[in-house]
Amino acid sequence: MSETTAANAAFIRVFKQYGGIFLSLVALCVIFSFMNGRFMSVANFLNVLQQVAVIAIAAFGMTWVILLGEIDLSIGSIIAVAGMVAAQCFAVGLGFAPTFVITLLSGAMLGLANGVLTAKFRLPSFIVTVATMGIYRGLVSLPTNGAPAMITEPTWTAIGTQSFIGVPIVIWFVAVLFLFNHILLSKTRFGRRAYLTGGNREAALYSGIKVDRLKIAIFMISGVMAAISGVLLSSRLFSAQTNAGMSYELDAIAAAVLGGTSLAGGVGTMIGTMIGALIIGVLNNGMNMMSVPYFYQLIVKGAVILVAVWLDVRSKQAKQ
Amino acid sequence: MDTSGNAAILEIKDVTKYFGTVAALKSMQLSVMPGRVHTILGENGAGKSTLMKILAGVYQPTSGSILMDGKPYAPANPQDAARAGLTIVFQELSLCNNMTVAENILATREPSTIGFINDKALTRKAASIVADLKLPVAVTEKVGDLSIAQRQLVEIAKGLSVDAKVVILDEPTSSLSDNEAEILFEIISQLKARGVAVIYISHRMEEIMRLSDDITVVRDGSYITTRDKNETTIDELIALMVGRDMDAIYPARDVPAPAMSAKPVLGVDGLSRDGEFENITFDVRPGEILGFFGLIGSGRSEVMNALFGMKRTSSGSISIDGKQVTISSPVDAIDRGIGFVTENRKEEGLVLSHNVEANISMVALKDYSGAFGFLKRRRERLAAEAEVKRLAIKTGSLQTIVGSLSGGNQQKIVLAKWLLTRPKILILDEPTRGVDVGAKFEIYKIIRQLAAEGTAILLVSSELPEIISMSDRVVVMSEGRATATASGDQMKPEKIMSFATGFVS
């Protein structure tokens, strides 16, 4: 008896937290399936997940950063840098494993630069990452003078094109990284400290949390997540493009904010961000299936974000 | 009270102000004459600022009446007050740092034609105001480039640039050096000569005796008396200011204070930080409650922040258990067994948007996590539950958001998060500020219990009765220096207040 009430209470809590956006997601799915019979199918669902993978993984990293009350606008550029680093590694004859590691390390280093400039030089992260967004984007073109670089390494391209136990490898990436970030955020000391620091930096400092180090680590996570997004994108495109990932930071921010991450810091979950990314994916996919012109898609996406965030703000004000 | 023929310009009758159920002012009286300096004297929290905010139109009185120039005066906002001829110069600086002195002085009253500001006229007008007041600043300088003292003078110039009948100066000298204070005193005598009434608030007794014509003493939100400067003494004023009985609100010690021969757990020797405090020396034994008293700006909190590694020191040494230590960050301080309940619990103590449990386990989180930093949620919950019970924290559940709790319960949560670390030395900076009487008593009991268990306590407070009743000894600070360490017979309000005001009788 008491177990059922406990389960009920837990259900109510989860529903209160995610009910709004989850219902939005369901509503979108219902609308799109009425408009197009092919929408509601396992094949299309996997399709949506595959399309959303690059954004979702970048959005996991973005969630950490926003949770801390900061922002990382450079992730779109890091996605492109990662692809180019991989292409160059293969060009000099490195194999899959070392290339993969070096690509992720490049993301970590670019994130480290963002973190050090923000934490140690005390510059606002908005300004830092606007600057590094440009710098990193410029770096992509250095090796090839702006030309795309082909990637033909079979294992690399398999990531974006092959399946494992009937599920595209890309989706395995999303699943594993979702679990990793979700557990790190909700079950460990590191995650708790991120929440506390995002909620009140001063109080965290007075409580003995090494706030600067934490901030740098989180920018590095954001860089690595963006680099993994870059791996998926380059493997799907069979190449590194200098304009890859352009403006993906905005979709990643939108996914995190739709999922309930507060731009003021201290509030947010990976589950929310995953649902937020799915909403963006479903919108893109559904409108593509209905052949809505691209410019209308932009308008609809913008409007959906405004409405979702407005509903969220309103429900939080009502609570207070 | 002075009633030498001319009528009062400002007359306050029976003004009472309630915040919720708490009376901040009880039937306050004040009668201010034109051309005279009227000082309001009282401890921190006696009701001075509430009274000034009512006069400035920031608050409205719950009952009572105010007459200005014989007409009813009930400003709904600061603009009303200014229109009626009342100017207030606040202690906190309210200038725009990235604008020039001239732009600040004439803010919202810039000389302009159809909305375009006439820069030359602006500079000229501001320059003449500054010259009249003989201020040592150039009007074209950015306020951000000025010293704090110069900014305070600009603030005063801004206040005096409108023709006022009543001018309120709230602790104007707290950030001024002697030279700059002289400039201010000169300005005040000019104002008096023009027939302006000046309401003056300060804690510096000598300055008060020099400037004032009339002195009104307030205590606990009530009017005590008004004296002519020539008919009173500093000693009498201090006695009037602090004279209250300290009855049962302070629990007595049930374990005797440690002997002075016991080995100190914390020793501080000659600690200094440029511009904030100088040559601070004290020690504290396990189980001892060492009070720190001083008026606002005396440097107490700065010393505590330095001890906790939040501020660097320029000289001096700190030793714990007889060994000299370097504390350069809160992490160092916590590792060495120091806890710090800061003065501003909302800013530095709590994460208001998070729940009770996460706030309580915040500092001791390492004890509630295992391999790879995985949290031991069950142990964490049990520990938080135990603290909630021990400190009688009134909260719906451990999941309740801390921001929704009362001030007293919030303060207990800050205490709880430090108690979980079992500190050897606990710094309490204004632990009962903004806390209701019931919770105050409970916090005092907790402090007593901690001391009985052997925790060394540094109790910082600007409430004199609290300091005297709770502490075993009191370090008195004034303007960045420790002026005395009171113990035994010296633990009297008059004595400590005179050390704190820098006036030793």
Describe, in short, the structure shown.
The complex is a heterodimer of chains A (320) and B (505). Chain A is mainly alpha-helical and 320 residues long.
* Whole-number count of domains of chain A: 1
Shape label of chain A: globular
Estimate the strand proportion of chain A.
Answer: under 5%
Q: Please indicate the count of domains of chain B.
A: 3
CATH superfamily of the largest domain in chain B: P-loop containing nucleotide triphosphate hydrolases
- Give the terminus-to-terminus CA distance of chain B: 26 Å
Count the DSSP helices of chain B: 17
What does it look like?
The complex is a heterodimer of chains A (320) and B (505). Chain A has helices spanning 2-35, 42-67, 75-91, 96-119, 125-141, 154-161, 169-187, 189-199, 201-206, 211-237, 248-258, 270-289, 294-319, and strands at 149-150, 163-164, 167-168, 239-240. Chain A is an all-alpha fold. A two-stranded antiparallel ribbon of chain A has the order 1-4. Chain B has three domains: 10-242, 3-Layer(aba) Sandwich (Rossmann fold); 265-337 and 423-505, 3-Layer(aba) Sandwich (Rossmann fold); 344-421, no CATH class. The longest helix of chain B has 16 residues, at 178-193. In chain B, helix 8 crosses helix 17 (493-500). Chain B contains 17 helices and 22 strands. Chain B starts with 9 loop residues before the first strand and ends in a 5-residue tail after the last helix. Chains A and B meet through helix 8 and helix 9 of A and helix 10 and helix 11 of B.
